[in-house]
Amino acid sequence: MSGRLARAGLLIAGLALACAAGSSASVRPRKHNAARRERSTASEVVVPRGQPVEIAFANDPGIGFASDLANAVQMAVDAEPDVRGFPVRVNVVNAATCGNPPTAAAAAVGAANAITADRQNVAVLGQVCSFGFAQALPIYESAGVVTITGSATSPSLPAAAPTVFDRTTVDDTSFDTWYATVSTLPSDLAWRQAYSRRFGTAPSEFADLYYDAATLLIRDLQRVSRIDSLHNLVVSREDLATMVRSTTGFQGVSCTVTIDASTGNRIDDPIALAKCA
User: Which range marks the domain in which residue 79 is found?
Assistant: First the structure.
């Protein structure tokens, strides 16, 4: 999301994040557990038997559609609620980056530091706006924590995190035309209808792209994780980042997702869109 949509989001401030009641998996604020953090290292996340595998979500509660993004992530988790028998939990981190650009960098850096300080976070969804993201991405890069955003569209972002930055949206150079097409695809329309039936209102822009981001991440966690001799779930951060970056032809609700291996950008593929139509 660049300035155009970020400013639109600011027209409705102060909306709290909402999650569906009665879900089997949860999207909720992080609760710290020092004992479990000590089991993981900078290169591997170890999830003890009976504990959840944790994903951070750098959302911005100050924008009017924050709850829609959270709902979309929840739908993805509910569709794939566990990784090799370990329940998925999403830890929402306040990354208020869609407001004043002068303060966005500080908010983005603060969120990135909080996420990477907790070694149980295997990956991060978001952040929502491009503001400040370039300052936060080197923190994720240094920690080896893969990121997937469904809304930060600035073309400059890939250079800030050469190995861990990825997105399920195209960048600003073709976003408007591309997303206008995506929004009319049968698969996207069907997902929007499912969202409306569940939450009683139509989803906002980008919600479908966060559903795809969360679904892609959970799929790749299934692929790269392993169970060790003590029945813990073990996730290599490097393997996960490599798997996400090598995404080719992943079937999302927004059509097939292919990520450019050199940048982490989603490739704008008119041929694929025509097939999905």
Answer: 3-276
